[in-house]
Design brief:
The chain is an all-alpha fold and 78 residues long. It has one domain (1-78): 434 Repressor (Amino-terminal Domain), CATH 1.10.260.40. It contains 5 helices and no strands. It has helices at 2-14, 19-26, 30-37, 45-54, 66-73. Helix 2 (19-26) crosses helix 4 (45-54). It is elongated and about 45 Å long.
């Protein structure tokens, strides 16, 4: 969570946004932005995704099985 907090804080500052401005753009409360940037462990996924979308940050799922999942979701047999 500390890494995510750091990434969000960096992007927010580079965008020239205050925590309140980011919260308004994301449609959430300022306290949520503050909590995430401080590394709070329990946050709602929809809150995090709203902040990431407002900052144009994409999340990409990664795992050792992703290529297998992609093949399966494309209808290929493994």
């Amino acid at each position: 969570m500390k890494e995510i907090a750091s990434i969000i804080r960096f992007h927010r500052k580079r965008a020239g946004l205050s925590q309140k401005q980011l919260a308004t753009l994301a449609g959430i409360g300022k306290t949520a932005v503050f909590d995430i940037e401080k590394g709070k462990q329990a946050i709602r996924l929809n809150t995090l995704t709203a902040i990431l979308a407002a900052l144009n940050i994409e999340m990409e799922p990664k795992s050792p099985l992703m290529s297998e999942w992609i093949a399966q979701s494309n209808g290929e047999q493994q």
